[in-house]
Design a protein that fits this description.
The structure is a single chain. By secondary structure, the protein is an alpha/beta fold. It has one domain: TIM Barrel (Alpha-Beta Barrel). The protein contains ten helices and ten strands. The structure holds NADP nicotinamide-adenine-dinucleotide phosphate.
């Protein structure tokens, strides 16, 4: 288990870059004031890792929240992602430049391919993913991203990518919560030195309705959110909880004064399917 004492503890990526162990999610956070003030609230609460994406449509407001917070750029870990329409070598380069402009920064700490090209719907999915990855490798070497990675990639996508990659992705961000542990993907990541980031760590809100988690959380005198985020950390995942409410933002950061027993970790591991499953990246035609 990683060193778990505070929000700004870090995992070390395969290239030596330190990444804070909890990130603040921003999917479905409306652009404008809500995105700006929730990012400010997260930074005030001590988060130093923000996760956004071109597809979330809120990069400019996330950037404004960062500026307004007064947190120095070098003290912050900022991730954004390349959207599906921007795959390919030239398009990927342009997409990153546009994200940097919108965020108002010279570099991101992590740039991810948001989804692989779906194998069922693309004749040349391996080639297009490889071309896109080459653009990310160049951006990394040019200092526009301190680390690069993928999201929603399964082992066959990674196997294909690694045939031509000169840099192994440092991160794979996947749907990861008590309802879906994606063991094959996590094992593959681990074997290749790829950090597993846990998106939808609260099942996009569905996790709160699970009676077994409600009971267990009460036993620890914690909330369900705190219970499952702690579970994620004790698995060495990197959870990315999202909220637009200041009290929840703080609640989701208070994870360091309790520890789940092995027995309770196993009980949570057994909850497969209670709050949704990962989307099959090959079955979605985008
Ligand atoms: N790479 C990808 O394809 C991908 C896909 C999905 C998500 N992500 C990333 O992962 C992040 C998190 O995933 P997610 O947005 O699906 O959802 P999540 O963090 O699993 O859950 C967020 C939901 O739970 C609510 N919530 C948060 N904290 C709570 C608390 N303490 N008590 C009660 N309700 C609470 C939020 O409502 P309020 O906001 O109203 O508080 C929201 O409805 C995203 O924001 C994004 O950064 C990445």
């Amino acid at each position: 288990m990683a060193h778990l004492t505070k929000l700004t503890d870090t995992y070390t990526l395969s290239n030596g870059v330190e990444i804070p162990i909890v990130g603040f999610g921003t999917w479905q956070t409306p652009d404008g004031d809500v995105a700006k003030t929730s990012v400010e609230a997260a930074l005030a609460a001590g988060y130093r890792h923000i996760d956004t994406a071109a597809a979330y449509g809120n990069e400019a407001s996330v950037g404004a929240g960062i500026k307004a917070s007064g947190v120095a750029r070098e003290d912050l870990f900022l991730t954004t992602k390349l959207w599906n329409a921007d795959h390919g070598y030239d398009a990927a380069k342009q997409a990153l430049d546009l994200s940097l402009r919108k965020l108002g920064v010279d570099y991101v700490d992590l740039y991810l391919i948001h989804w692989p090209n779906p194998a069922k719907f693309r004749d040349h999915w391996e080639q297009v993913n490889a071309d896109t990855w080459r653009a990310l490798e160049e951006a990394y070497k040019a200092g526009k991203a301190r680390a690069i990675g993928v999201s929603n990639f399964r082992p066959h996508h990674l196997d294909a990518l690694l045939r031509t990659a000169t840099i192994t992705p440092m991160v794979n961000q996947i749907f990861l919560n008590p309802s879906d542990l994606q063991p094959e993907v996590v094992a593959y990541n681990q074997a290749h030195g790829i950090l597993s980031e846990a998106y939808s760590p609260l099942g996009t809100g569905k996790i709160f309705d699970v009676p077994a988690l409600q009971k267990m959380a009460a036993r620890y005198d914690k909330t369900v959110a705190q219970l499952v985020l702690r579970w994620s950390l004790q698995h060495d995942f990197l959870p990315l909880p999202k909220s637009v409410h200041e009290d929840r933002i703080r609640e989701n950061a208070a994870l360091f004064d309790f520890e789940l027993s092995h027995h309770d970790m196993a009980q949570i591991d057994a909850l497969h399917g209670v709050a949704g499953l990962a989307t099959d990246p090959d079955a979605t035609n985008w």
